[in-house]
């Protein structure tokens, strides 16, 4: 009877640990996003150049609603669009009674920030730069704490309007708007 109770406790402990450590693998869409053209979102800043129109050429922020507000034409939807798609949308609006044949160029001036939290020296919001990896983001955030799991981290990413969390290795690249969570190691 005593050995059955011990066996039961051992099985219970193993099943509880398995439940805590189990994690769904990173969805395929998570890494496919890295090969897609960059899509604008709230917090990005774009440089819009309308050739021979100095009054329209400026730097504009994508607001929380996902729009860029320009003089004359007003709000132009930007969230989920590439820079080239935004160029076309602005040119279309300008053709509607303002300019005959507008030549518009859009480039990304500043990407939306990333967020690093968990077992790092200084959790917080940091500027995104192209080529940023998890390891570089952790270094920017003050490095790993002594209790940090340095093998893998959890990244939360917006993929086509769905917020998905996946576990990745520290050499994985980041995208603007990602949230990096460095877990505590067990031993």
From TrEMBL:
<dbReference type="InterPro" id="IPR049712">
    <property type="entry name" value="Poly_export"/>
</dbReference>
<dbReference type="InterPro" id="IPR003715">
    <property type="entry name" value="Poly_export_N"/>
</dbReference>
<dbReference type="Pfam" id="PF10531">
    <property type="entry name" value="SLBB"/>
</dbReference>
<dbReference type="GO" id="GO:0015159">
    <property type="term" value="F:polysaccharide transmembrane transporter activity"/>
</dbReference>
<feature type="signal peptide">
    <location>
        <begin position="1"/>
        <end position="18"/>
    </location>
</feature>
<dbReference type="Pfam" id="PF02563">
    <property type="entry name" value="Poly_export"/>
</dbReference>
<feature type="domain" description="Soluble ligand binding">
    <location>
        <begin position="114"/>
        <end position="163"/>
    </location>
</feature>
<protein>
    <submittedName>
        <fullName>Polysaccharide export protein</fullName>
    </submittedName>
</protein>
<keyword id="KW-0732">Signal</keyword>
<feature type="domain" description="Polysaccharide export protein N-terminal">
    <location>
        <begin position="35"/>
        <end position="108"/>
    </location>
</feature>
<dbReference type="InterPro" id="IPR019554">
    <property type="entry name" value="Soluble_ligand-bd"/>
</dbReference>
């Amino acid at each position: 009877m005593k050995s059955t109770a011990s066996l039961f406790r051992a099985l219970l402990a193993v099943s509880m640990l398995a439940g805590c450590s189990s994690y769904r693998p990173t969805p395929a869409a998570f890494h496919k996003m890295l090969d897609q053209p960059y899509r604008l979102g709230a917090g990005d800043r774009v440089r819009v150049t309308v050739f021979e129109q100095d009054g329209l050429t400026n730097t504009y922020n994508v607001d929380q609603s996902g729009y860029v507000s320009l003089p004359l034409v007003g709000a132009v939807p930007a969230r989920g669009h590439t820079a080239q798609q935004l160029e076309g949308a602005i040119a279309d609006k300008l053709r509607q009674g303002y300019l005959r044949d507008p030549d518009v160029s859009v480039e990304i001036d500043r990407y939306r920030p990333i967020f690093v939290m968990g077992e790092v020296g200084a959790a917080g919001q940091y500027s995104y730069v192209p080529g940023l990896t998890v390891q570089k983001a952790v270094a920017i955030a003050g490095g790993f704490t002594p209790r940090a799991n340095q093998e893998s981290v959890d990244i939360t990413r917006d993929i086509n309007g769905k917020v998905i969390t996946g576990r990745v290795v520290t050499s994985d690249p980041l995208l603007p708007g990602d949230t990096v969570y460095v877990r505590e190691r067990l031993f």
